[in-house]
Amino acid sequence: MEARLKKLNRVxxxxxxxxxxxxxxxxxxAKYGMSSSEFIEKWRRxxxxxxxxxxxxxxxxxxxxxxxxxxLVEKExxxxx
Length: 81
What we know:
Blueprint: H1 2-32, H2 36-45, H3 54-78
Helix pairs in contact: 1-3
């Protein structure tokens, strides 16, 4: 029973984390007018140049990290289903 409860708590935690990440990603998509898949593809290929503006550069780094974290969270969730 305790193992099931531990798994349930982990799944709930992952779902909440996923929701938060998706909200943050949507904020960046709205701010920069592109989808995350478009951003990450262009960013990795160098189509989007390294921004001079430190705020934009920071946003891009955070956005990339959120996309990577979302992938990890979703992969872990798949293990439970």
